[in-house]
## 1
Amino acid sequence: MDNLTFNKSNKSLNFSGRSISLSLSFCILAIALGLDLVSQRFLQIGSLTIPLILGAIASMSLGIWAVPLLQKIKAGQVIREDGPQAHLKKAGTPTMGGAFFVPTGVILGLVLANFHPNAIAVSALTLAYALIGWLDDWQILRKKSNKGISPKMKLALQVGFAGLFCLWLWWTQPASIITNVALPFGLSLSLGLLFWGLAIFTLVAESNATNLTDGVDGLMGGLGAIAFLGLAAYLAPTHPELMILAACMSGSCLGFLYHNHNPAQVFMGDTGSLALGGALGAIALLSNSLWVLLIISGIFLIETLSVIAQVVYYKSTKGPDGVGKRLFKMAPYHHHLELSGWAETQVVGMFYIVNLVLVLICLLIGS
């Protein structure tokens, strides 16, 4: 099939952002209901469904008030000029949406989990990473440029908060959590002191991966809802407090998606994207489920590797004129697909499907 035919086919399969977000919401709700019915936790606080629904309603409702407020204070997104040209029309759309939907999921999760120490620790790390993102977003708005705080400062803050979280792990958790990494099929890997490097790397890498993925209307909001649902479902038998927190975060992402689907009324900004990655990493570390995180973060991993591959290939192919070749039309990978003729909604819908499949695979392996 030539490119012209492919593009025509793409257009015929194009769906609205609203229909895609609604389909995802129904799919996630159906999975949660099904798992609760099987485990006989239906209509209980310690279930997937109730925290999920409450998180979605709370986040969506708060957004109805918060989005106009962000517009009023002129928190409009500055669009990078070297990005896809179709994105330039989004300039001025309010950003920093993470400032309302992340605290919503965190606070609701804490309340429903009865302020369990594990839930408090994950929430603290999540809000700390949200603060880093807020500082970055605020600097972008203040400077009217797409450059916020310096990369070195952002990395230093990420590593610093990750280190504090790891110290808390060392102080409160059994040695089996902080030295042995659980693997599928009942296997484990003993890392000893190397675990600390892995833990800090996980938090920093996951937050940066979700940050890179947040580049298309509705993409990270929906993927975040799917990833948190996967973690919540896997942890239900062993860590009910983390399950509740993850389910609330999944619902909060869905509620945010009501305002963020294409065409977006608001962007989550670094305030949201860094926080989501931090929360996923912290939950996985505390529950010793890093292999689960690796699978459900498959899309985030692909996005990150596409950026790394692009930079490495460009530098390795530089000629005498100092200009190199590009492996992709643009990185991260979702931009490559856009420039190849995919509509934003097609990219989002395909990524949703892939991530749902990864979650189902993960649950099958872990069952």
## 2
Amino acid sequence: MIPRYSLPRMSAVWSDENKFQKMLDVEILACEALANLGKIPQKELKKIKSKAKFDVKRIERIEKTTRHDVIAFLHNIAEYIGDSSRFVHQGLTSSDVLDTGLSVMMKESADIILEDLKALKGELRKKANKYKYTIMAGRSHGVHAEPTTFGLKLALFFDEINRSIERINRAKEIISVGKISGPVGTYSNVEPYVESYVCKKLGLRPANVSTQILQRDRHAEYLSEIAIVGATLEKIATEFRNLQRTEVREVEEPFGKGQKGSSAMPHKRNPVMCERIAGLARVLRANAMVSMENVALWHERDISHSSAERIIIPDSAILLDYMLNQMTEIVKGLLVYPENMTANLAKTKGLVFSARILVELEKRGVERRRAYDIIQRCAMKVWEKGVDFKDALKGDSDFIKLVKSKEMDDFFNAAYYTKHVNTIFKKAGI
């Protein structure tokens, strides 16, 4: 069953209809290759291609008896093709058809995910440029550090989505492989030409070496790359969630007309979309772990990977598609409150400028440890007594000997921290 959160295009990729169509494509292309080798008469190939069909419901009914999905599929298409069906699946094993078809489906899903990533990247670019110079507090350990800009925060996400595009392209490349090499990969009853022909027609590469199956390190890499992209989305979602906290409220995810936040508290505007993304990212990581467990199989093949893959591969592709669309919606409709960013920056009464002041003392020849001690001493007065940092510095006898009072205003200018923003944007290609 396709999950309810699946979007139409991705649902179509992982539908039973598409699965059996890919299997039929492999079977017909294998027949074409065998005909090219003179092993199937051309008139029989013509019959196969004109009559070959399947019915998902009929396959399901047959499988209740055969308890084998590929045999049920072959029985069903034979019902349409007739006597010529004796040439179908000649020299092949089930995994030749299943694994090659699965690779095509995974490749198709990767193409959808790449489109999603590009759409999210476009929205991040727009927002990053809009808030390029919007000053806010940078935070480390959750505590105010130095000023940054909201645009830079978004530029960071933009750059990471670029790497996500590279990852999914790699995943697509690693899985774009097929195999039609027989029961243990020796081509005992099928010529290597058949594999080359089928793979070329499907846009795949033949595996260099295979057993009864394609090796599952490929599938593990595919799901691992998906999980990493999911982790990036969780990272973005977590940042927005933190910035939406009541005490911060610098951004909010979109809140639609008629939307409700709580059954008990009518005032609530909760970051539910971001929280959903954070939760689903955990599922992607769990699925990637299962895919790694599938790499080590017995000898030339066992079936322990198969049941798990029927869940983890479609679910991971469907989940990431959904998560990317959700995040694109969040970024597009993100509510940003620059006035709260300014107010929050002022809450630490100038402490965010301490690093710059440390550098200024060093420029004046003050030994770093002494300069640090002077500034920290003044900073602790701000934390403990609530005084303004600038006043604490002016009231410190050691500091005032080193810096003229009229110089201090420049030390507390937030524009100092934006002088290289444009350079960073250019490096990121924004």
## 3
Amino acid sequence: MEKNILMITGEPSGDMRGGELLKELKSILPNFDFWGIGGDHMKAEGAELTEHVRNLSIVGVTEALKSLGKVREQYLNITRHIDKRKPSLAILIDYPGFNLKVAKYLTSQNIPVIYYVIPQIWAWGGWRINAIKKYIDKALVLFDFERELLEQHNINVEFTGHPLIEGFPPPPSLFSKDEFILSLLPGSRKSEVENLLPIMLDAAEIINTSLFPNTIPPGFPENAICNKKLKIMIAQNSNVSSDIYDLLIEKHKELDLHLVLNDTIRTLENCSFSLVASGTATLEVAVMEKPMVITYKAPLLNSLPYKLIVKTPFIGLVNVISGKEICPELLQKNATAEKLAEKTIEIINSPEKLKTMKKALKKVRESLGEKGASRRAANVINHFIQEKNL
């Protein structure tokens, strides 16, 4: 039986983290094969996929209910593979609803489990802490406040830092004199793009009309914002069909729109402001120290459980890390084009608010740790393997 390590994620962001980690693991563990559930990033680093994340990524109760049969089929499929290949170790990445169930099965088979990118237990309540304590041998966390939380429950945990820092350059200090660039990051899932991109584009229309009139009143200084042209960069994700983006932007021919495929840095590097779907993208914007408004809108059935069980007053990771709202959150019924535009214009027109936000975002960037997070995580995993003689 070959030495092999199982890796599982079910979401695009988890696939990115898995790909970064696998790149480091391959050099440290050349005698191991890697396989499991992932996406293009993990596949590019040599993982043998039994299923692609594009077939599993689920948001909210509605999608979960529709996908119960598919998820159960994948669970049974992965347990069959586990029985056949008998991995030395399993590395589970985010995707808690599925991964914690798999962790329970792995534990019953005496297969050690490392959890990388833990569930948002600080937001959703403590029941998953009990599952982590019972079925996970070691947790590797991206945020130091997660380490503190797990240590309070006597869970074997190590803070390795966030890999986002690795690929992002220092925040640029120069901006275009002729253009005001607004970045739209509507998420990486089909449902998110369909729900949020239309709202963001409608907000961009309002911002364009309000701040960038065709006729400039006389007497305005040369560097006034109204002397610039609005350019809009849209973060496009390959997990979502390009036809969806094309259909949505077709309705906004008057705007100067540019789709940027799978390149958040290019989407953000020269922008002045961002409208961002809640999730990992808020950290990407924070790392570039770009002012933002955070938004999210899901069907009512999806939002009701959130309201009932959520523990944190914020959902934007930058606000969770800061412990206060440093970037406005417009969610559910407040996620309208009018309110997005109003809040954006309010911030853009206030140098003091922009300065305060950028200062807070810099602190968020610093909290993510030094570069080399994926290498540190790989070294911890290697040490675990040596310690357990796997």
